[in-house]
Amino acid sequence: MSNIPVHADKITDETPVINQDMKFAAAKKSTWISVWVNAILSVWQIVIGVFSHSQGLIADGIHTLSDLIADFVVLIANRGSSKAPDEEHPYGHFRYENVASLVLGVLLLVVGGGMLWTAGSRIMSPETIPEVHSVALYVALLALLAKEGLFRYMLHVARKVKSNMLEANAWHARSDAASSLVVAIGITGSLLGYRILDPIAALVVGLFILRMGIKFTLQSLQDLMDRGADEETIAKITESVMATPGVEGIHDLKTRKSGDYLLVDVHLEIDENLTVKEGHEIAIAAEMNIRRDPQVLSVMTHIDPAQSVRAGLTT
Question: CA 105 to CA 109: how far, in whole Å?
Fold first, then answer.
């Protein structure tokens, strides 16, 4: 029986190096744009929030400040994951992105919890809620427009280069836009005489942040524990392998994530009467078919004689 491990590094023309370079460049550019937008907005919101006595606007400013910190986490992760493979990390450093997503999630959990505590304390003591100035409403509306625009831009870039980390950061920006909308509504209600609506808006913002934090934390933990590809991706990989001439069947197909990429292991069932060279060529062809998907980083194939496999299944 011939068992031939075929390593992906032998197929240089199919390696998605260009796509990786595009992803790193897009991440750097979009994240720096986000840094400048969030830096300006956070300072403006917190300062005006203090001046106008709006707890909701201050909470929204803190939320924006957390986005700014998250942007720097993404920049650090982007730089780390772009390092070339080395002896200690033969598959590259793409898990920097998974760790970055985990840091983002924990950051959101901490910020959201703190905001819930502060807003809840103010709601329990409504007599301590001050009157809000109208300037807070204009700042909240302007922040809403800026954050929604930033979200749409970042999501477009993330989906263009297929980056989960960038998409997570984009949805973080969308949560900011949603929170700004809630804050604007709360400030409007406060200006109309319902002062308790301002801390209620801050409470809702805290819930937004907490929810996103739970989502990102759980998702990144699963990725760090070698979560496999979804059923649709598995089906596409299976289809591409079975379309390879000479492959009669497959088994033990396994995948695991590394950053935004997939590592694939698969056993190929071929005619046992073929030569070692012929089996090797079939494995190479199957590997190239799999790696047409730019999400696939590495493929390991193992050859089994189809007749023996089928005999083993029937006994």
Answer: 6
End-to-end CA distance of the chain: 19
Which position has the token pair 């993404």?
Answer: 74
Candidates 113, 121, 26, 111; CA nearest to 61 is: 111
> Could you tell me the sign of the dihedral formed by the alpha carbons of 157, 159, 165, 168, in that order?
positive
Could you state, in order of their start, the residue ranges of all structural domains in the chain? 16-225, 231-311
Let me know how many helices (H) and strands (E) the chain has, helices first: 9, 3
Are 1 and 136 in contact, with CB atoms under 8 Å apart?
no
Q: Which fold has domain 16-225?
A: Alpha-lytic protease prodomain-like (1.20.1510)
The list of the chain residues with pLDDT below 50 reads: 1-18, 314-315
**Nearest-5° angle of CA 123, CA 129, CA 131?**
140
**DSSP codes, 176-188:** HHHHHHHHHHHHH
Q: Distances from the Cα of 23 to the Cαs of 81, 121, 123, 150, 304, in angstroms? A: 11, 44, 45, 18, 37
Query: Which distant-in-sequence residues (6+ apart) come within 8 Å of 211 by Cβ?
Result: 112
pLDDT at 5: 40
State residue 267's pLDDT score. 93
Instruction: Provide the 3-class DSSP secondary structure of residue 311.
Output: helix
The CATH superfamily holding the domain 231-311 is Cation efflux protein, cytoplasmic domain (3.30.70.1350)
Sign of CA pseudo-dihedral 180, 183, 187, 189? positive
Alpha carbon 293 to chain centroid distance? 19
| Percentage of residues of the chain with pLDDT beyond 90 | 4
Note the pLDDT of residue 160: 78
pLDDT in tens, 212-248: 788 878 877 877 766 777 788 888 888 888 989 999 8
13 phi/psi in degrees, rounded to 5? -75, -15
